[in-house]
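Hi V.,

Quick status before I head out on leave. The structure for the redesign project is tokenized and pasted below; the design run finished overnight.
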């Protein structure tokens, strides 16, 4: 079976249609369109695939159905359909599961990157990605900005994450490890039965294979630096 090479398009393209993220049924935005717009291949702007199309193409190159991928990841077919059609952005833990199932680094789905000795993301150039949309992110608890989208074959995934108050209480688990440093506000970190309240300057490191949940503590937003390591494929 043909291997997918990270950092390169999975299809040869001539003309590609321009696509824009569409609002979902609630009218919420899906992602920052400047990041996910796909331009005409003849333009001077390099084409960019959406996260959903990368997942779809990787799945098809592996010869997997949506049901196969659902069985491998534990993610429902309904959710996978929404991801592939760019109607939702999965949480980071599910991106890691998709990477494992499709034998890709999770960062490929965010951005495959290019081979450079060093990549820089200036503060005014960060791209915000919402987990579900402006209003739904308030329900689910966060939206994130990748701090290394242009680095190919990266083993770590650093993010600036803005957390909003949420009632969410379900713990999740996936391969790898996570490091979190609190920049603003307060967060509640739970791993197994251990619960800690963390404030600016506090840090936590844990195996994300253990059931865990990190969310805002109190009724104010918080901001954290998070570095995820998904482990080897």
């Amino acid at each position: 079976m043909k291997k997918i090479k990270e950092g390169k398009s999975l299809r040869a393209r001539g003309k590609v249609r321009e696509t824009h993220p569409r609002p979902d049924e609630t009218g919420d935005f899906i992602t920052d369109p400047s990041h996910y717009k796909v331009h005409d291949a003849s333009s001077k702007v390099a084409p960019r695939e959406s996260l959903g199309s990368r997942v779809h193409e990787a799945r098809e190159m592996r010869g997997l159905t949506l049901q196969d991928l659902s069985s491998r990841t534990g993610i429902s077919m309904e959710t996978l359909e929404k991801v592939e059609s760019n109607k939702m952005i999965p949480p980071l833990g599910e991106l890691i599961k998709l990477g494992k199932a499709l034998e890709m680094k999770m960062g490929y789905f965010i951005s495959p990157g290019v081979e450079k000795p060093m990549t820089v993301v200036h503060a005014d150039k960060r791209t915000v990605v919402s987990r579900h949309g402006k209003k739904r992110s308030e329900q689910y608890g966060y939206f994130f900005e990748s701090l290394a989208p242009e680095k190919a074959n990266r083993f770590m995934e650093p993010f600036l994450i803005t957390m909003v108050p949420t009632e969410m209480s379900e713990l999740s688990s996936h391969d790898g490890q996570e490091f979190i440093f609190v920049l603003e506000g307060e967060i509640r970190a739970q791993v197994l039965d251990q619960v800690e309240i963390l404030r600016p300057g506090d840090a936590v490191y844990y195996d994300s294979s253990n059931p865990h949940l990190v969310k805002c503590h109190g009724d104010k937003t918080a901001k954290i630096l998070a570095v995820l390591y998904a482990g080897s494929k």
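Above is the designed sequence. The radius of gyration is 18 Å.

G. will cover questions while I'm gone.

Best,
W.
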